[in-house]
Amino acid sequence: DNGQASFARVLAARLTQDAAAPLLERADFIESPARALDALLRDPNRVVPAAVVLEAWSRLARNSPDEAVARYRALLERMPTRKDAHELALPLAKGLAWDRKPEALDYFARVPSGALDLVGREWWARAAMWAGDWEEVRAAIAAMPPKEQADWPWLYWTARAAEQQGERDTARTLYTAALAGDNYYSAMAAARLGERVVPRFEPMPLDLAKVETIAAIDAFRRVRELALAGMRDLATNEWHYGYSLLPEDQRLQAIHLAARWQIHDVAVAMATSHGRFNDYTLLYPQPHEAEVAAAAKLTDLEPHLLYGVLRQESLFRTDAASSAGALGMAQLTPATARETARRWSLPTPSRADLFDPKVSITLGAARLAELRERFGSELPLALGAYNAGEAAAARWLPPRETDRDVWIENIPYNETRAYVRRVLWHSLVYRWLETGQPQSTRDWVGEIASTAVAR
Q1: CB within 8 A of 283, min separation 6: which ones?
Q2: Among residues 236, 272, 242, which one has the least CA distance to residue 254?
């Protein structure tokens, strides 16, 4: 049931021919959906379980929506019930929306609103805003459950749709409501209202006596020693053990201890588990200030932007390592780090060097500066490229001038879409911490050109 075709073939090899046949058939549909569906369409007498066909169809629609469009009508004739019709249309609508194809709306129209799942509802709205069909945007949001409609993203987009349709008073009311979000969408709403942003600072209560009591507990003393020895995974495991032993009234104070010891990822994770997001002095630390300042000077990037990227990439863990092979605070792969160092005439880093904050911060800043230049100083594009790769960001260039917020909302990778929004917000917070002044987000609005490529 996990779509592991190769494992299905291993199992099939141990079964009789009759018992293996369904497994092998399903493996074919998983591995080569276009070929398997074509074979099915050529044989009007062949019977394949609907679940197997729909699984293959969903894979094809997700990975090659244009190929799916070419087969849609023929397959629909083989699966003619009303339920089958929308089960074919919905995956195709999503796939086309992820590729930002205008035909997506045609296929969303073939799905009853009650048959839309959460992802379908959201991408119906995104496809409509990409097409500039603001009436359809409002229809898609109206089809969402009330709780989802009230979430910050859709409150903002309801306001945008109202504004685009000339309902300025309604838009202003909704934008004003969105200001309470204290996030990317509230900052976007402020830009639309022509207002500046002041993050809503809510310090967590601090009881120094309790913090000192926690620091003296054996488990936490071990945490401290392990962290100082650079054994962060063991330190984190020991932290969770010690934390589990704390009475409820001390757990919030343990967050202050993690921040004091510069175990920033633990501090942020623990604060999140308590629903505490707005103690910006505690949860937005600025470690390695000299290295960040030097990297900013070298690359002509703003320190608050670099801090925003580092916070999102690694929460300042110097030993961070991702499943994709990205290493260090700035999360660069060894190959990208070497290529960047060569272009900037910097020493060639070894794998171990990427765990050195100075090396990681410098090369991360250099890479981001390259991407910003590559994409015509369009920061959202540069951030998208930093997270998902330069080739992906180039594929996502709009076919025409497109509003920045619409472009960001239509980034097809969930992780990258969230990444761009969060780094923009993090950098705003860091700039506010640096200056103490209300922040303008006017440069967040405007348009991304289809030619936003420097070379």
Answers
A1: 259, 267, 268, 271, 276, 277
A2: 242
Which residue in 311, 285, 414 sits closest to 364, CA to CA?
311
pTM for the model stands at 0.93
First-residue to last-residue Cα distance in the chain: 45
Taking residue 334's Cβ as centre, other Cβ atoms within 10 Å add up to 17
Q: Which residues contact 153 (CB under 8 A, 6 or more apart)?
A: 185, 409
Maximum Cα–Cα distance across the chain: 78
Distance CA 234, CA 219 (A): 11
Average pLDDT, the chain: 94
Q: Is 182 helix (H, G, I), strand (E, B) or coil?
A: coil
CB of 196 closer than 8 Å to CB of 440 = yes
φ, ψ at 292 (rounded to 5°)? -65, -40
The beta-carbon contacts of 390-396 under 8 Å, at least 24 apart in sequence, are 392/416, 394/453, 396/100
pLDDT digits 0-9 by tens, 181-220: 999 999 999 999 999 999 999 999 999 999 999 999 999 9
How many C-beta atoms lie closer than 10 Å to residue 180's C-beta? Answer: 12
Q: What are the CA-CA distances from residue 454 to residues 156, 387, 424, 446 (Å)?
A: 32, 19, 22, 18
Q: Does position 36 have pLDDT exceeding 80, yes or no?
A: yes
Query: CA–CA distance from 371 to each of 175, 313, 352 (Å)?
Result: 32, 16, 24
How confident is the model over 62-95, as pLDDT tens digits? Answer: 999 999 999 999 999 988 676 778 899 999 999 9
Residue whose structure tokens are 């204290």? 182
CB-based burial label for 78 (10 Å; 0-12, 13-18, 19+)? middle
The helix/strand count (H/E) of the chain reads as 27, 2
Domains, the chain: 32-149 (1.25.40), 208-277 (no CATH), 289-448 (1.10.530.10)
Percent of the chain clearing pLDDT 70 (strictly above): 93
10 residue type, one letter = V
- What does the alpha-carbon distance between residue 341 and residue 333 come to, in Å, rounded to a whole number? 12
Contacts of 390 (CB under 8 A, 6+ apart): 371, 374
pLDDT value at position 239? 97
* Arithmetic mean of pLDDT, 351-356: 98
